Amino acid sequence: MSGLPGPSARHVTVRAPGKVNLSLRVGPPRPDGYHPVASVYLAVSLAETVTAVARPDGDARITLAESTRRPSSVDTRDVPWDERNLAHRAALHLRQSLGLAPETHGVHLEVSKQVPVAGGMGGGSADAAAALLACSVLWDTGLTRSELAELAAPLGADVPFAVTGGAAVGRGTGTELTPVAARRPVHLVLVPADAGLSTPVVFRTLDELRSLGRAPEGQGEPAVDADVVRALAQADPLALALAMENDLQTPAVTLFPELSDVMDVGLDEGALRAMVSGSGPTLLLLAHSEQDAARLATAVQERTGVAALAVHGPVPGANVL
Q1: What is the mean pLDDT of residues 120-124?
Q2: How does pLDDT run across 273-317, given as a tens digit for each residue?
């Protein structure tokens, strides 16, 4: 964490990446209701930005940045801008965990969003990761990145990965992270939907489909997809295309049937693989190169009228600007 602003800083701006799941295996629900997963995460170049500004009154507030209020591709109408917001909760969690006095550790968080809301890309988790790092620097806590990632775990399964970034295998509920070597960038086209999907509803639908025999049963503790990890390490996009799987794709498409049509368009336009990202409804289309991704994004957008974004990964986790 060297080179970060010191304790005299009165505002700190941090960028944190959204993510896609190149592989997502889901086990049956545990007694506590959570599903064990084995996932391969990739942090991508679509990111959230949070600015933390010191408040002398000890209060904690959060607002949407003016740049995002102007017409954009991100619909923020369903995002709460109060204590329910995950970034707001992250700031309070940090303050409480470290026993910092509220009257001397007030903060105003300003969030600029690029990652689709409720799109399965961890945008809210990226906000939380950015808020954690921004407040940590603002309050001069001295926490390392690994300590922040550990502190992030109670906030949600995707928050620790947004802190660390890169590529990683996630186990348990997704918070047990092991870095994965990716020798070259993976080029993708992301196709956000014009409506969101609730992650709990997608998991519940998976359980229902499995009970009806309409989706493959999951292992009690799902295994990491070694072929995906190997394809990343070998920088082989064709092998990666063959290996990618997502147990949540069937329930996501069941809830949002139009996703199948867009995936078909992507494949028809030359995508190596089309898949739901995480719990959806954002789709990812795997391309062979940066040029192919740019061409694919244009073609899909022209044919569907839906925004298509060429991105790459892995990128670093939360970092101070």
Answers
A1: 89
A2: 999 998 889 999 999 999 999 999 999 999 999 989 999 999 999
pLDDT in tens, 36-60: 999 999 999 999 999 999 998 889 9
State pTM to two decimals.
0.90
User: Which DSSP helix (H) or strand (E) runs through 238?
Assistant: helix 237-243
Q: Which residues touch 2 (CB under 8 Å, ≥6 apart)?
A: none
* Placement of tokens 């670093």 in the chain: 316
User: Quick one: which of 100, 101, 155, 82 has its CA closest to 124?
Assistant: 155
For the purposes of burial, counting CB atoms within 10 Å of the CB of 55, is it exposed (0-12), middle (13-18) or buried (19 or more)? middle
Ordered DSSP codes for 278-299: TTSS-EEEEESSHHHHHHHHHH
Active site residues per annotation: 19, 158
* HEC-encoded secondary structure of the chain: CCCCCCCCCCEEEEEEEEEEEEEEEECCCCCCCCCCEEEEEEEEEEEEEEEEEEECCCCEEEEECHHHHCCCCCCCCCCCCCCCCHHHHHHHHHHHHCCCCHHHCEEEEEEECCCCCCCCCCHHHHHHHHHHHHHHHHCCCCCCHHHHHHHHHHHCCCHHHHHHECEEEEECCCCEEEECCCCCCEEEEEECCCCCCCHHHHHHHHHHHHHCCCCCCCCCCCCCCHHHHHHHHCCCHHHHHHHCEECCHHHHHHHCCHHHHHHHHHHHCCCCEEEECCCCCCEEEEECCHHHHHHHHHHHHHHHCCCCEEEEECCECCEEC
Q: What is the pLDDT of residue 197?
A: 87
Beta strand 309-313 pairing with 186-191: antiparallel
Buried (b) or exposed (e) across 157-189, using 16+ Cβ within 10 A? bbbbbbbbbbbbbbbebbbebeebebeebbbbb
